[in-house]
Amino acid sequence: MRSVSVLGIGETKMGRWPEKSLRDLIKEAGTKAIQDAGIEKESIQALYMSNFNASYLAYQAHMGPLASEVLGLGNIPTIRIEGACASGSLAFRQGMMAVASGMYDIVLVGGAEKMTHRNTEEVTTGIASAMDFELEAKVGITFPSIFAMIANRYFYEYRNVREEMALCAVNAHHNGSLNPDAQMQKEITVEKVKTGFPIAYPLTVFDCSLVTDGAAFLVLTTTEIAKKISKKRIIEVVGSGHAGDTITIGAKKSITGFASTQLAAKQAYEMAGMKPADIDLCEVHDCFTITQIVNIEDLGFFEKGKGGDAVAEGKIALTGSKPINTSGGLKAKGHPIGATGISQIYEIVTQLRGEAGPRQIKKADIGMNHNIGGTAATCVVNIFKGW
Amino acid sequence: MAKKAKIYSFTIVYSSSEEFKDKVPYVVAVLEENKERFSSFIEGYKEDIEIKIGMEVEFSRFDEAGNVVYKF
């Protein structure tokens, strides 16, 4: 396998953009990534395009050719990748493997989603296609309710972390307020999170990630080529893992720890020859506040049942020992589903390059992104190293 | 179909999909019976019912799609 590096990154500001089409979002983020890479678009040999729900929310499938036409990529092969909320990291991994294998030297990886033009019930229905629709959505289950059940079971098996869940949202909003691309630009308090409009007990609206329009793109190439042409810090992909689990919540062995995360992380750590303590920062999949606590345990950063303590002690803050979601995460930066995993990698590369401005962390040499799909039925974990 | 099952976890749903918007607030749960777990709608939720993990609920009926519905 050849070593692969991220040569260019681009994303839109995340938010509610009624005046912007999928085409507009793709054009903005894709053009930025190609410019950032410092290459001509003619050198791109393939496009791996992530999208989850445009078929339902915007009646748009066949996202590969759509993005290719918008970006003027001619006749290159394109493919749409879908793995629910993990679609972005899955597309990244397919592009990474294509370059590593020697099939292509330079590929474009992108993701886009347009969601805010539909009402909450319609978005809830669309997102429910990432669970077993017949066995779960048809009995009244929604994604917030799945993670609410995970929270209640976590309270039962370990302890009540309602306060610490709220602190996850507070941390996310603080980081988002320092990120110009974040949908949420304001700080929030623990009290506001806990007393917000109830969505699914114990989750309020402020425990939930956002409904977002946005796009993000990456240019990948071999580390050898990156060293020749890049004027920026080389960001190598040193580890990558991808694992699965049952689609239904009922069939999982445990719902307070995700087997897919644990296995994908193990693969990524082994490939990189690293351990959790080596990771300087991580963008984790905080679709809900409880998910962040479960994730930081599953990734090995903190002991099982102790994630809440770490949050309360400030370890996940920008100035803490393990900064989590410096971008604001899904909770404050936003969750444009197909673009989310790619936007996580955008943040890791930005931090490793030292370009994160007021939210820049001090030591940023090794970064990780963690992206789950559905009820953690799909998980991708990647580790990046700045040279 | 088990006449009784235990609550493995639960939630009260206040914000639903289009199909269930007339039913909020309502309870859904992961139920456990003979070490098998499955998801179910739980009928008969009222604000004064204290729901706990481990409590038993009773089989009520099959819904139109053939899925089980339990009740408090």
Plain-language structure description:
The complex is a heterodimer of chains A (387) and B (72). Chain A has helices at 22-37, 54-57, 63-71, 87-101, 120-127, 143-157, 162-177, 190-194, 223-229, 259-272, 289-298, 307-312, 329-332, 337-353, and strands at 4-11, 46-50, 78-81, 106-113, 198-200, 203-204, 214-222, 235-244, 281-283, 366-373, 378-386. By secondary structure, chain A is of the alpha/beta class. Chain A has two domains: 4-119 and 212-229, Peroxisomal Thiolase, Chain A, domain 1 (3-Layer(aba) Sandwich); 134-210 and 237-386, Peroxisomal Thiolase, Chain A, domain 1, CATH 3.40.47.10. In chain A, the strands form two sheets. In chain A, strands 3-2-4-7-1-8-11-10-9 form a nine-stranded mixed beta sheet, with helices on both faces. Chain A has a two-stranded antiparallel sheet with strand order 5-6. Chain B is built from no helices and five strands. Chain B starts with a strand and ends with a strand. At the A-B interface, helix 5, helix 6 and strand 5 of A face strand 1, strand 2 and strand 3 of B.
What is the number of domains of chain A?
A: 2
Strand order across the largest sheet of chain A: 3-2-4-7-1-8-11-10-9
Number of domains of chain B: 1
The helix content of chain A, as a percent range, equals: 25-40%
List keywords for this structure.
heterodimer, A: 387 residues, alpha/beta, Peroxisomal Thiolase, Chain A, domain 1, two-stranded antiparallel ribbon, 11 strands, 18% strand, globular, B: 72 residues, mainly beta, OB fold (Dihydrolipoamide Acetyltransferase, E2P), five-stranded mixed beta barrel, 5 strands
